[in-house]
Amino acid sequence: MTKPSIILIGMMGSGKTSVGKILANHFKFSFIDTDLAIENKENKTIDQIFNLSGEPYFRMLEQNILKNLEKNNCVISTGGGFPIFNDNMNQLLNLGTTIFLETSLKEIHYRIGLNPKRPLYKDESSLKKIYVDRIPIYSKAHYTVNTDGKSVLELANEIKLIIE
Ligand code: S3P
Q1: Helix, strand, or coil here: 121?
Q2: How far apart, in whole angstroms, are the C-alpha atoms of residue 50 and residue 58?
Q3: Positions in the chain whose pLDDT score sits under 70
Q4: Nearest-angstrom CA–CA distance, 75 and 53
Q5: I need a labelling partner for 117 at 20 to 30 A (CA). Which of 51, 108, 123, 157 fits?
Q6: What is the per-residue pLDDT across 3-34, written as a single tens digit (0 to 9) for each?
Q7: Is 39 touching ligand 1 by the criterion CB < 6 Å?
């Protein structure tokens, strides 16, 4: 059966990849993580791409990936900045069902602190600025699910109820 793709957006550390994999498995959809797709295509880590070629180049790679995303039967986990640049958010809204995984700054800070390998994560105040700038764009999503204090399984179940 053909169903619209599910697109997860939100800040780094909001659980897009982990939740996306569970959803893809549940709905028998294919799964794409845009960061991973870029890393595979460039044969470099995101960190290396930022360091060697800079953020604008990375954003161009994201825009290129967007052209090839599936409209149907796919779960798409996006990088945190993916909807923010160019006209990407509007295009995602037309592509499938967008879900904003909303996470408080405090929780993002805690989760990223456990795995700080992200080029845009420097300290709490830089994170706050990114967060505040991005909220109006993330909030355009078709649905918003708050992730604070929830396990990835709980989140996946919540999203299943929205989609089914
Ligand atoms: C970014 C988030 C990262 C990755 C890159 C830039 C951002 O993805 O795309 O480091 O701009 O917020 P995650 O959201 O998967 O950490």
Answers
A1: coil
A2: 7
A3: 114-117
A4: 28
A5: 157
A6: 999 999 999 989 999 999 999 999 999 999 99
A7: no
> Whole-model pTM?
0.96
Residue 109: both structure tokens together: 């800070």
Residue 23 Cβ inside 6 Å of ligand 1? The answer reads no
Q: DSSP alpha helices (H): ranges in 5-147?
A: 16-27, 34-42, 46-53, 55-67, 88-95, 105-114, 124-138
Is ligand 1 within 6 A of the CB of residue 80? yes
Which helix (H) or strand (E) segment is 75 a member of? strand 74-77
Helix (H, G, I), strand (E, B) or coil at 74: strand
Q: Is 62 in the pocket of ligand 1 (CB under 6 A)?
A: no
83 within ligand 1 shell (Cβ under 6 A): no
Please name the residue whose Cα sits nearest to atom 12 of ligand 1. 80
With 0-12 / 13-18 / 19 or more C-beta atoms within 10 angstroms meaning exposed / middle / buried, residue 156 is: buried
**Residue type (1 letter), 61:** L
